[in-house]
Structures are given as structure tokens and as C-alpha cells.
Amino acid sequence: MAQQERAIRTRQVLLLAAASVFDEVGYDAASISEILSRSKMTKGALYFHFASKEALALGVIDAQTADLELPETGSKLQDLVCLTQSIARRLQTDVLLRAGVRLTVEERTLNLLGASQASPYAKWIEICGGLLTESKANGELLGHVQPAAVAELVVASFTGIQLVSQVYSRREDLAERLSAFWRYLLPGIAVPGVLPHLTTDPPAAG
Amino acid sequence: MAQQERAIRTRQVLLLAAASVFDEVGYDAASISEILSRSKMTKGALYFHFASKEALALGVIDAQTADLELPETGSKLQDLVCLTQSIARRLQTDVLLRAGVRLTVEERTLNLLGASQASPYAKWIEICGGLLTESKANGELLGHVQPAAVAELVVASFTGIQLVSQVYSRREDLAERLSAFWRYLLPGIAVPGVLPHLTTDPPAAG
């Protein structure tokens, strides 16, 4: 394995270990020594990649949107709905994503992250806004719909919906809650002719 | 002042002191001694009313929906929109409400609260669901709309919207974000004839 490749893998192992600890106990109670122990890496390796617990938290938050594959269904609006459903499913299994969302939601962490605090939401808003802008250009959205405002709304609502779903069912009912969100929201943003062609259900397990 | 009245006042002073500390530093970092010092009450008084920090947090969470006055505009759907806007405004000034929402959002606290963890959301969902059920009975909602599902959606979305607004503007843009949420959602739930009569703007400052 080339040296650079090994470094990337080491960084990823450290991020995953940090994510599993942040996901379980939150930022405050997470300890570097526990992260180190789960990663089975040396302290030197950890501090080479991440100068502090804060840097690890930032890395976990940034990883949320890394390597994101967008759906391609032929409709950008359907792509957006599918994207939210695929993130909902990943929240069940992907500890890196789940920890990133937990850190993003907790005020304590957002305060710590300081100037960069808005960035995790901003990245998601940019992705959703891009899909909505294309959707509008393709004639799928009603004339008065502002893609940027809807993108902010979708990201904020998703954040709250996954939070409530977590409290009630450890996110097991998240797909159904998201589906309801889209069923009630779509008539206010999509042109009537597009509505019958959209599905709000989660994609079949694959 | 009668003894019972004094006890109620003491309890309220303690709740407010606890709320101001939870609001600033969150549950974990809040100390009983700091709460005591802000309340200017004795340790005996505090432990008479609240057996533990957990009991204080529960008291703050429960206080969110206490003494809630519902708007009466003549339209139950308009009442619901106004309720969310009035809560948005109170989040700027009412430390008890703000601390309750912070505690409700943070996983650490929700885990601590154990069996009662779902209750803060449940109470809000019940209030919104009641308004929507009446709204439907009054013919304001589309036939397929399920008041309970919309109530869950509104509470969850509100939770996320206030969170994102807090990150971006310390909640200064919350009224505008809520207004956008309702503008895009209402066409999916209200009958067309009702829409022109609804306003999504925050009530004028009073």
C-alpha cells in the first residue's frame, strides 16, 4: 500500500472510531483515549491527523457530505426526495453520518466549532438547492417557488424530523415520517402535472 | 402572601434560575450551586421542590407548555400558524421556553429523562393536533389530510427550523423561516378557498 493510501486509511479509521464515540456519548463526554483505544492507532498517528478533539469533531461533521452519490431518476425533484430517503436509511447504519448529525444538532458542539458552525447545514442546503434549481429549470416547480428557500426548509425540517423520529423510535419510523413530509409539501412546490409521477416512499431495500 | 402562593413563587424562581443556566451551558455543564446562586434561594428550598438536577430539567421541559394561551382568530388553521409564530417570538425573550427547547433537542438530556423522553414533543403534538382536528371539522382542510400526521410534521419541522435559525442568526430570522414553511406547506393541506384568507406573517409586535 502506498504511503498516501495508508495515511488516508488511517485517517478514516480514526474518524470512524471518533464517530462511534461521539455517537454514543456526545462531544463533551467523548475522550481522546477512548477514541484511540477503539481505533487501535497510536497517539502519534492520531495527533498527526487531528490536532484536537475539536478537529476530530470537525472531521466527522465534514464527512457527512463526503463521497455523496446523488440519485439519478430522471426527475431532479424525485432525486431530492430519494436523497432524503437514502440519508434516512443511512442514519440507521452509518455511524459516521449519525455522529455528524448529532454533533451538528447539539448547541455545545456548534458553539465550539465557532466560525465554521454554519457549514454542515450550508453544505446540505447547497446540495438540495442545486437539485431544486435544476428541477425548476426543467419546469417541475411552480412559478413562485424559490429553490433556495425550499432547500433551507427541507434541510431544517429534515433535521427536526430525524430528531423526533430518534426520540420516538430510534429512527425506525423516519422513512414514514419523511414520506408524510413530502406528501404534504409537494403540492405546494411542484406543478400539478408532475405530482402523480413522484413517489415519496423509501427506495426498496437493496 | 399565603404559604401556598409563596411556595409557587419559590418554585418558579428556581425554575427560572435553572432555565437560565441550562440555556447558557446545557444540561451536563449546569451545576446545582450555580442555579442556587442565581435563584438566591436556600439549598433547603431547592431540594424541597426539586430532588435533583434531573428533576429541575424535567420541570423546565414541562414548563414549555404550561399556561399556554391559544390564539383565537376565528380559523383554527390560522390559530395554528399564529401559535407557531408566537412561540418563535417567545423563544427570543422567554428563557424558560428556550431552555426547555434546548433540553428537548439534546440527546444527552433525552436519554437522562428516560421513560418520559417523548413527552415534551407529545404535548406540542397534542396541542397542534387538537387545532388541526377542529380545523378539519370546520372544513378548512383537504379531505385526505390526517390531522395527527400533520401535527407530528409541524412539531418536528418547527424543531429543526428553530435549530437552523439559531445557528444562522440566533433565531432572528426564525419568523421569516416559519413564514416560508407555512407558505409552501399550506397548499398541501388547506382547501383552496381558505388559502387567500390565511396569513403566514408573524403578528405585529405588541
Outline of this structure?
Two copies of one chain form a homodimer. The mean pLDDT of chain A is 90.
Secondary-structure-based class of chain A equals: mainly alpha
Q: Are there runs of chain A of 5+ residues with pLDDT below 50, and where?
A: none
Question: Into how many domains do the coordinates of chain A divide?
Answer: 2
Any idea what the shape of chain A is?
Answer: elongated
What is the N-to-C order of secondary-structure elements of chain A (H for helix, E for strand)? HHHHHHHHHH
What is the CATH class name of the largest domain in chain A? Mainly Alpha
Relative strand content of chain A: under 5%
- Oligomer designation: homodimer
Largest sheet of chain A: none
- What is the rounded distance between the termini of chain A? 31 Å
- In CATH terms, the superfamily of the largest domain in chain A is Tetracycline Repressor, domain 2
CATH architecture of the largest domain in chain A: Orthogonal Bundle
Number of strands of chain A: 0
The Rg value of chain A, from CA coordinates, equals 19 Å
How helical, in percent, are the residues of chain A?
over 70%
Mean pLDDT of chain A: 90
User: CATH topology of the largest domain in chain A, what is it called?
Assistant: Tetracycline Repressor, domain 2
- The total count of helices of chain A amounts to 10
DNA-binding region (chains A, B): 31-50
Keywords (chains A, B): DNA-binding, Transcription, Transcription regulation
Protein name (chains A, B): ScbR family autoregulator-binding transcription factor
Domain HTH tetR-type (chains A, B): 8-68
